[in-house]
């Protein structure tokens, strides 16, 4: 589990790892809402199990589609509207958008699982 965490946050997201007993007491994190709401939506490659942040994957897919050829101006504007609102979508909506726009795993082009909450705390 620790290696999965390091791979995702330290290697892929370029974050720094701080190893210590505690940075902030849990009661403060609970009171601030971090424990209950500090989550990202993750999807997995159904064959390899590789994990991806659902919003980042959808964003990259739509940005590529908007810049590509063979997409109508109307469809491009629809995709731009989704991109503008991406931070406001919940887990269900992100899953529906991934299915609607045909997002696949970036490396393997395999199908993806439905999004699941991943608590960052």
State the end-to-end CA separation.
Answer: 14 Å
How much of the sequence is in beta strands? 5-15%
Radius of gyration over C-alpha positions, nearest whole angstrom: 17 Å
Number of helices: 6
Give me the count of strands: 3
Main sheet? 3 strands, antiparallel
Percent in helix: 40-55%
SSE order: HHHEEHHHE
Determine the structural class based on helices, strands and strand pairing. mainly alpha
Mean pLDDT: 88
Strand order across the largest sheet = 2-1-3
Shape: globular
Low-confidence stretches: none
Give a summary of the structure in a few sentences.
By secondary structure, this protein is mainly alpha-helical.
Task: Give the tags.
121 residues; three-stranded antiparallel beta sheet; globular
Written overview of the protein:
With 121 residues, the protein is mainly alpha-helical. Helices cover 49% and strands 11% of the residues. The chain has a three-stranded antiparallel beta sheet. Strand 1 and strand 2 form a beta hairpin. The chain is globular. The two termini are 14 Å apart.
Secondary structure: elements and pairs:
Elements: H1 2-12, H2 26-32, H3 34-37, E1 39-44, E2 51-53, H4 54-67, H5 73-85, H6 91-100, E3 116-119
Antiparallel strand pairs: 1-2, 1-3
Helix pairs in contact: 4-5
């Amino acid at each position: 589990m620790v290696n999965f965490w390091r791979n995702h946050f330290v290697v892929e997201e370029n974050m720094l790892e701080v190893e210590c007993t505690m940075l902030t007491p849990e009661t403060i994190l609970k009171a601030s809402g971090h424990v209950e709401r500090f989550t990202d939506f993750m999807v997995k490659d159904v064959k390899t199990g590789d994990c991806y942040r659902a919003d980042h994957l959808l964003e990259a897919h739509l940005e590529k589609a908007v810049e590509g050829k063979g997409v109508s101006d109307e469809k491009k504007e629809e995709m731009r509207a989704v991109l503008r609102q991406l931070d406001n979508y919940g887990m269900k909506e992100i899953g529906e958008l991934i299915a609607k726009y045909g997002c696949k795993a970036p490396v393997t082009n395999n199908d993806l699982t439905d999004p699941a909450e991943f608590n960052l705390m």
